[in-house]
Q: What sequence folds into this?
């Protein structure tokens, strides 16, 4: 588990295998200070990936700013180059509004839950 480097950080990013599919879970407030934490965990996930799908579980995010969305876009781009299907799950609240306002809802493959994404993978 990685924890943000800000003293009052309440963001974590962890990963675990569900069968052969790797799931990265982000929790807390994803802002400019915390994007390196998410980037480090996603980079670690690329190295551990054994299946053609990576799931990012965002159901525990309480906030996401534009730098967080930039990290999600970067992960999508990396997945496209590597031939890996990137799925977002649990998109809600602030993040759902930001993706909608930016016209990015059609850019990402989104499922309501990890279980539904695993079924589709």
A:
């Amino acid at each position: 588990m990685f924890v943000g480097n800000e003293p009052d950080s309440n963001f974590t990013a962890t990963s675990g295998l569900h069968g052969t599919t790797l799931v990265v879970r982000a929790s807390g407030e994803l802002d400019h200070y915390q994007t390196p934490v998410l980037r480090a965990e996603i980079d670690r996930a690329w190295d551990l990936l054994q299946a053609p799908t990576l799931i990012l579980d965002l159901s525990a995010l309480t906030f996401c700013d534009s730098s967080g969305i930039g990290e999600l876009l970067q992960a999508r781009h990396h997945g496209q180059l590597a031939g890996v299907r990137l799925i977002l799950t649990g998109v809600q609240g602030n993040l759902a509004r930001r993706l909608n306002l930016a016209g990015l809802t059609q850019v990402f493959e989104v499922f309501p839950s990890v279980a539904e994404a695993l079924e589709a993978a």
Notes: Residues 66-82 form the longest helix (17 residues). The longest strand covers residues 53-64. The beta strands are 2-3, 12-18, 21-30, 53-64, 85-89, 109-111. The CA atoms of residues 66 and 98 lie 8 Å apart.
